[in-house]
Amino acid sequence: MKPQRFNKTDPALIALISDLKAKERENGAAIWRDIAKRLEKPKSNWAETNLSKLDRYAADGETIIVPGKVLAAGSINKKITVAAYSFSAAAEAAIVAAGGKVMTIAGLMEENPKGSNVRIMR
Fold first, then answer.
1. How far is CA 59 from CA 5, 7, 54, in A?
2. How many CB atoms lie within 10 A of CB 89?
3. Where are the domains of the chain?
4. Side-chain half-sphere exposure of 114, counting CA atoms within 13 A
5. N or C, where is the chain less crowded by C-beta within 10 Å?
6. Exposed, middle or buried, 86 (CB in 10 Å: 0-12/13-18/19+)?
């Protein structure tokens, strides 16, 4: 039996994966290839990170990337920058209320092309 192949159909996601791979080739920053590989997987395998996990493991002022969705379970008290494919509305509001910043993966890629001092959280 052949393994099932998952093809992405969302044009925005396909463009993001392509941009991530291009940025990795351009700058040699392996983090963008890693994020692209994670986003190519089936959506059921994507990261779903809660605010409580971000608060527990991220340091104040740190930049975190979540190759998936940030959810609002728990609370956050640290000023961190979080880039993710998507956010729940409550999670986005809580991060901003704590003094943090939310952004898209593409926005982080443009702001920090080398991907330095960025931590991937699952």
1. 38, 36, 9
2. 8
3. 11-120
4. 2
5. N
6. middle
Q: Are 65 and 120 in contact (CB under 8 A)?
A: yes
Number of helices (H) and strands (E) in the chain: give both, helices first.
Answer: 5, 5
Nearest CA to 82 out of 15, 57, 42, 4 is that of: 57
CB 48 within 8 A of CB 69: yes
**Residue 102 amino acid letter:** V
Query: Position of tokens 């920090």?
Result: 112
For the segment 74-122, what is each residue's pLDDT rounded down to a tens digit? Answer: 999 999 999 999 999 999 999 999 999 999 999 999 999 999 999 999 9
Is 11-120 a CATH 3.100.10.10 domain?
A: yes
Structure-token match 């092309």, residue found: 113
DSSP secondary structure letters along 102-115? EEEHHHHHHH-TT-
